[in-house]
Specification:
The chain is α/β, with parallel strands linked by helices. It is built from 5 helices and 4 strands; from the N terminus they run ββαβαααβα.
Length: 129
């Protein structure tokens, strides 16, 4: 975990790991609700489906590591065309640390790793402006 240039730490956490006070602003960034988790138990501050990859992109990548480089480019393009969701996340977090919550068992080839990079880049750009 690292703080970005804005002093905000962006953490990645499976929803099944449970919430901790140090999580800060917890937001689910999956398009589908995780299996076996009751909404009342999730302890989320928000659910931004619009930050998740589109259904078509999610089905295309099929957790295939060979498709990872292309997935990253396509997902970044989707995020760049929906910046209002990124702005909402940053505004709602209100300078608190952010925990991007997801369901997948896959940690390395996961959209949240790309999303964290994009948020870091956006915050760095805002801090320079």
């Amino acid at each position: 975990m690292r703080k970005n240039s804005g002093g905000i730490m962006i953490k990645l956490k499976r929803i099944y790991a449970g919430a901790e006070p140090s999580d800060g602003y917890r937001v689910l960034v999956d398009r589908l609700w995780p299996r076996g988790v009751r909404k009342s138990d999730a302890k989320l501050d928000g659910w931004l489906r619009g930050l998740a990859p589109s259904t078509g992109l999610r089905k295309w990548v099929e957790h295939d590591p060979k498709k990872w480089p292309e997935f990253q480019m396509r997902y970044r393009a989707e995020l760049n065309s929906n910046t209002h969701f990124l702005q909402k996340l940053i505004a709602d977090a209100a300078d608190r640390d952010i925990t991007l919550v997801y369901a997948s068992r896959e940690q390395r080839y996961n959209n949240v790793t790309v999303l964290r990079e994009v948020i870091d880049e956006l915050l760095a750009h805002e801090n320079r402006a």
